[in-house]
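Possible regression after last week's pipeline update?

I re-ran a chain I had predicted before the update to compare outputs. Posting the input and the new output here so someone can diff against the archived version. Not blocking, just want to make sure nothing changed silently.
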Amino acid sequence: MGRETKKMSPLQIKARMRGEKRRQAKILAYKLAAGMTIQNEKLVMRAISEGLSGNKKRFSSLWRAANTGMDEHVSTASVYFMLKGIGSVHKSKVQKLWLIRKMITISMMRMPTKMTGFSTTHGSAQHPTAKGVEFFDRRGKSHGYWDRFRREDALRSGESSSSMGFDRLDDVASEATRHSLSFGIAPASAGNVFTMPGITSAQETQQSQQREAMKSSAQLFSAPISSTPSQMMDDDWEPDRSRPMSPRRY
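New output (post-update):
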């Protein structure tokens, strides 16, 4: 990424940065409309600095603290190793600013851990979260299984990308979020999805709306989505590692 970025002029990079700010504003609007928590951008920037310097423990702590209780679609470990590698290559001031702006966007792609998982007649999974707030199953069930696949698919997408410079990170974020919504995070309102005792229909609707916010955000990275115009909130859902995101739910 570093060598490719050097081929771009400062004006080209500044144009990319303006586009990144517009994308961040749209993601923020989607998340606020769905009642989602917002990250602490200052902590994200501090984490990026630690990652570029190769300080894994400090990076991980700050990155997670920037928006606690959330599942990062691009895993914390993946972001760290990308930053560490980029940090080994000399960058101009404008290149570094572009990288920071890009990573802030990637950090916005998060869903609450308690709402991350699925449960159908074909299986279930639940992201580790606080005890008693799980939506789909007991804490941590099968999470490592699909999270590993997500990480593999996202990094493979970045490695095979034809995009220039740090724009390749868009492909990583696109695939990570597509994978999350198609394989690991069910809409709780779907008719064939089961939730834990105590989860109300209002909570199921809220989870589905927050999931839709992430789907809209993923489309800003050109994540593939079904050509079917839309579907009902209670239409069925099944995990599928390779398919596009399902249509918007209303």
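Follow-up from reviewer: compared with the archived run. The first strand starts at residue 70 and ends at 72. Marking as no regression found.
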